[in-house]
Amino acid sequence: MNYIKHLNTVFQKVYSDNRLNTSHISLYMAAFQFWNVSRFAPQFYVNREELCRMSKIGSNRTYQKCMNDLHKWKYLKYTPSHNPFKGSEIKMFIFAPTSAPGSAQTTTQTGSLVMHQAVNRYIKH
Question: Has this prediction a pTM greater than 0.85?
Fold first, then answer.
């Protein structure tokens, strides 16, 4: 799993998904960091308080809504746990580029080509 390619693809997906708000994005990034720390394990366990602290979400209700939305919208698989010693299970979905490396478009979603070109404009090759 390529960390940078995955994040670039996720940001392109976020850019074109109007359902997401800042809490969704922040919670996804916090979960991604936990996944990174667990060395990209197929699934890992998280503590709600830690995820809320990292994502700067102050409400349990906002956390639950955003986590359930991310699960429903296939950004991750969330299995809640009612056991405070175990934590909830998360499985991150791997988002990979859909076209060959070096091509102008890295995903097939509408609007992604514009985003890719705008990002590349500021990157020195």
Answer: no
